[in-house]
UniProtKB/TrEMBL annotation:
Domain of life: Bacteria
Pfam families registered for this protein in UniProt: CheB_methylest, Response_reg
Domain CheB-type methylesterase as annotated: residue spans: 193-386
Organism: Bradyrhizobium pachyrhizi
Keywords: Chemotaxis, Cytoplasm, Hydrolase, Methyltransferase, Phosphoprotein, Transferase
Protein's UniProt keywords contain Hydrolase: yes
Compartments it resides in: Cytoplasm
Sequence ranges assigned to domain Response regulatory in this UniProt record: 20-138
Protein name: Protein-glutamate methylesterase/protein-glutamine glutaminase
Gene of this entry: cheB
Length: 388
């Protein structure tokens, strides 16, 4: 995810309210830099700065952090090996995997998400380059803030839990009912009257896991209609994600190519670092990649994809906004609804972060707000003609 810098107001905190962060990286330079950044924030604190994954596993219960920033490549015990051991000791620990932008590390980061990591962040190749370092700082602080705040609100916030038996999924911390009672009462719209001709999906934090769940269950939709996805993700990572989507859905999936025709039976993923829009070329709908500035502090962003599709499909658009920080997708969703299309949002309880879907719900543009496991069945019914 590419993020433009912006000032973010944060609440003042007492020491007991601060998000407790454990930094685990074999580079003393990286540990020191991240620790200084976190120490400058009023709502978080570094409670440990460790060199190896083994140190993190051995000291976790004593330190009791809310968030661990975990490097992938370390001596003694690397990040991907330490991850399940950390989560076995503290099931609600937020783990943010940190790695350089290589294909191998992108593969490992996505595997870490499937093993229970909450998010990932690409480290710049050189922290001496000011823009790269500042973007890394901004992204990391926002991830710690949003993910750490959620786990501290969770009623299952705990120090330790027994290891899981093989084959069992680790449950995510639940959200108190009061946390989503008010948004659940937000205005619901009817589904659009026109039959949808395309499915468009936007996601960010927690998105890769949610997308895998979704595409595995919407085969009947993919077979008859094109599916376009924007996931906030950097280059290389989107290449790997497209490959994973293809394996999971058992349908063709690839990064969008500028100028290519959009066809049913295909999944098109916005490539990292470029916006993916839709254009009309004769009778064909085509992919139009855009190297313009970030939108909603993101590149690729969901809003450009959503809004551009209206000129091609008018009101025959079904859009889905999945888990993610910020409000990307809300403005484009408004445009889709105004044109006669529909928006479905993931509910708060199953979202890693309820920023993007929550913004859509609170804007009153959603025809449905559903748990993740109910979105695919609903889409299959809608695309089959049921718009109730």
């Amino acid at each position: 995810m590419s993020v433009a810098l912006t000032s973010t107001a944060v609440p003042t905190s007492t020491r007991s309210d601060k998000v407790r962060v454990m930094v685990v990286d074999d580079s003393v330079v990286i540990r020191g830099m991240i620790s200084r950044w976190i120490g400058a924030e009023p709502d978080m604190e570094v409670v440990a700065s460790l060199r190896t994954g083994l140190d993190a596993v051995n000291q976790l219960e004593r330190i009791n952090p809310d968030v661990a920033v975990l490097d992938i490549e370390m001596p003694d015990l690397d990040g991907i090996s330490a991850l399940p051991q950390l989560l076995a000791k503290k099931r609600d620990l937020v783990v943010i995997m940190a790695s350089t932008l290589t294909r191998r590390n992108a593969e490992i980061s996505l595997k870490a998400l499937s093993l229970g990591a909450s998010d990932y962040i690409p480290k710049p190749e050189s922290t001496r380059e000011a823009t790269a370092a500042e973007t890394f700082r901004h992204d990391l602080i926002q991830k710690i803030r949003h993910l750490g705040a959620k786990v501290r609100r969770s009623p299952v916030h705990t120090t330790a839990s027994p290891p899981l038996a093989p084959g069992h999924d680790r449950p995510r911390p639940s959200i108190p009912a009061a946390a989503h009672t008010a948004p659940a009462q937000a205005t619901r719209r009817s589904f659009g009257l026109l039959p949808p001709k395309v499915l468009m999906i936007g996601s960010s934090t927690g998105g890769p896991q949610a997308l895998m769940t979704l595409v595995a269950e919407i085969g009947p939709v993919i077979d008859r209609f094109p599916v376009l996805i924007t996931q906030h993700m950097p280059p290389t990572f989107t290449t790997i994600l497209a490959e994973h989507l293809a394996r999971t859905s058992k349908r063709p999936a690839h990064e969008g190519i500028d100028g290519e025709s959009i066809r049913p039976g295909q999944i098109y993923l916005a490539p990292g670092g470029r916006h993916m829009r839709v254009a009309r070329h004769g009778v064909d709908a085509t992919i139009a990649l855009d190297d313009g500035p970030p939108v909603n502090f993101c590149k690729p962003a969901v809003d450009p994809m959503f809004t551009s599709a209206i000129d091609v499909w008018q009101g025959s658009i079904m859009s889905v906004i999945l888990t993610g920080m910020g409000s990307d997708g809300m403005r484009g969703g408004k445009d889709i609804v105004a044109a006669g299309g529909s928006v479905i949002a993931q509910d708060e309880a199953t979202s890693v972060v309820w920023g993007m879907p929550g913004a859509a719900v609170n804007a009153g543009i959603c025809a449905a707000v559903l748990p993740l496991n109910q979105i695919a069945p609903k889409l299959v019914r809608v695309f089959a003609g049921d718009r109730s």
